[in-house]
Amino acid sequence: LVAPAAPVRPSTALAARQPITGGNWKMNPTSLDDARELAKSVAAAAGSSAAEGIVFPPYPFIGPVGEIIKDTKLNLGSQSIFFEDKGAYTGAVSASMVKSLGVKYVLAGHSERRTLFKDNDAAINKKVLKIIEGGMIPVLCIGETKEEFDANLCESVCAIQLAKDLAGVSAADVKTMIIAYEPVWAIGTGLVCPSETAQKVHKFLRAKLASMYDQATADAVRIQYGGSVTPDSVDELMSMPDIDGCLVGGASLDGEKFGRILNFN
Ligand SMILES: O=C(CO)COP(=O)(O)O
């Protein structure tokens, strides 16, 4: 009798993917002082975590937060950019503006941008290309709604978003990118997608990337899970072979909790 093999995270290809976890602060905290306090507590709690860490502060706080985290292992992120370079676009922020503040990673396609700010796939695709052109790394967020999940449309919705949002992105660029699978029904609801379900979707996404590009490219892309991740759910999620990190909202506003998520077991 041969015992069934225990699930193991690293294979040769997987071992090369360093875990990466981001804290999306969204429209929090509400003052510069509070943003500085949060940045300090995240920096203290992150330590030398196994996962590469990113913080995504609101635009006005990117510079000051960058100053606080500059000597830590945390990376600076931006929650969005507009796809034009400069000009008469009141209220908009360009790729070069955030790049000049030290930003390395930029979110594109977050479900709150898609629904509240009407970012469609064409605009998201332009943003992805502009982020890359600007020398930064896109974190492309995709995911299905509750209705789509219930109708068993999760994989087809994600596949369409992936294809449209990555149009014109080269294999070399997609290799360094991050995809965040964020089921809309799990965001801010306390309902974490069961880790086996998330693993199945991540595996599907990697296969889709392999069909759009090639297997080596697909194996290099880091795919994050996002949606109500907490210190209680992170360890099981991170034990899944195709889950390479998390994109965290609510729990990233607490330095200790986010530190624990970065230092998963
Ligand atoms: O939208 C998210 C991260 O981008 C997830 O938010 P929550 O962790 O609050 O569910």
From TrEMBL:
<comment type="similarity">
    <text>Belongs to the triosephosphate isomerase family.</text>
</comment>
<comment type="subunit">
    <text>Homodimer.</text>
</comment>
<dbReference type="Pfam" id="PF00121">
    <property type="entry name" value="TIM"/>
</dbReference>
<dbReference type="InterPro" id="IPR020861">
    <property type="entry name" value="Triosephosphate_isomerase_AS"/>
</dbReference>
<dbReference type="GO" id="GO:0005829">
    <property type="term" value="C:cytosol"/>
</dbReference>
<comment type="function">
    <text>Catalyzes the interconversion of glyceraldehyde 3-phosphate and dihydroxyacetone phosphate in the glycolytic and gluconeogenic pathways.</text>
</comment>
<dbReference type="InterPro" id="IPR022896">
    <property type="entry name" value="TrioseP_Isoase_bac/euk"/>
</dbReference>
<dbReference type="GO" id="GO:0006094">
    <property type="term" value="P:gluconeogenesis"/>
</dbReference>
<dbReference type="GO" id="GO:0046166">
    <property type="term" value="P:glyceraldehyde-3-phosphate biosynthetic process"/>
</dbReference>
<comment type="pathway">
    <text>Carbohydrate biosynthesis; gluconeogenesis.</text>
</comment>
<keyword id="KW-0324">Glycolysis</keyword>
<protein>
    <recommendedName>
        <fullName>Triosephosphate isomerase</fullName>
        <ecNumber>5.3.1.1</ecNumber>
    </recommendedName>
</protein>
<dbReference type="GO" id="GO:0006096">
    <property type="term" value="P:glycolytic process"/>
</dbReference>
<dbReference type="InterPro" id="IPR000652">
    <property type="entry name" value="Triosephosphate_isomerase"/>
</dbReference>
<keyword id="KW-0413">Isomerase</keyword>
<keyword id="KW-0732">Signal</keyword>
<keyword id="KW-0963">Cytoplasm</keyword>
<comment type="pathway">
    <text>Carbohydrate degradation; glycolysis; D-glyceraldehyde 3-phosphate from glycerone phosphate: step 1/1.</text>
</comment>
<dbReference type="GO" id="GO:0004807">
    <property type="term" value="F:triose-phosphate isomerase activity"/>
</dbReference>
<keyword id="KW-0312">Gluconeogenesis</keyword>
<dbReference type="InterPro" id="IPR013785">
    <property type="entry name" value="Aldolase_TIM"/>
</dbReference>
<dbReference type="GO" id="GO:0019563">
    <property type="term" value="P:glycerol catabolic process"/>
</dbReference>
<dbReference type="InterPro" id="IPR035990">
    <property type="entry name" value="TIM_sf"/>
</dbReference>
